[in-house]
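Quick question, first post here. What does this chain look like in 3D?
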Amino acid sequence: IRLHSRLHAPHNSISNSKMGLVGLIFEIAVLGCLAIGIASTSAVVGTCDMLVLSRGRGSIGPWRADIEGVTDGCVGWDKADTDLDDWILNMGRACSMMALIFGCILTFFGFFKQCLCPLPLGQKLIDISGAMVQISLALTWPMIRSSVCDTYGCSWGGGSSALLVAQLSFFFASVFSRCMREPRYERIQNRNDQPPTENDLQSSLLPNESTNL
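> Answer (accepted):
Ran it through. Tokens below.
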């Protein structure tokens, strides 16, 4: 039995190292996607060129606009200051901000759960916030069907690229969050709970060289 366990010990260690390496790769990828998602969603909220108006009239975003002859550069605009009562445009504004909020929640729970400390309902909250981010970002796309675009004509601007990157980044982070290696606190606990190996016992039985000197 001892020989059988010794023969299988190298195989188990190799498989564990492979799983740890794959989990580490997924962990780096997930944390990187979360960072990219937060940056891209912030760009969506702060952009002025989500929709480019035809005939060079300018461009608008969910919360900022740059309209020729109306605004002095890229400035924030309030729907209360306009005569527009467009529910599609208002939905895009609200959903873009909701996406940023849920993205911050997803990043907070993902980072804390994996790197710092355990959180109650950690994975469930990650799944819920990840789904809400996708829904909020998806409901930002219909802005191109708003009454502004029906009146003046619109085309997608550079902000749409940030919206696409944000949606893909949060999607991959949510899906592959279950493929990461064990959280840091669990790895430390498992390392402390492991019984001492034969090498550790032999090294503890060896006389200390400092005492002989």
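The CA atoms of residues 26 and 120 lie 22 Å apart.
The two ends are 41 Å apart (CA to CA).
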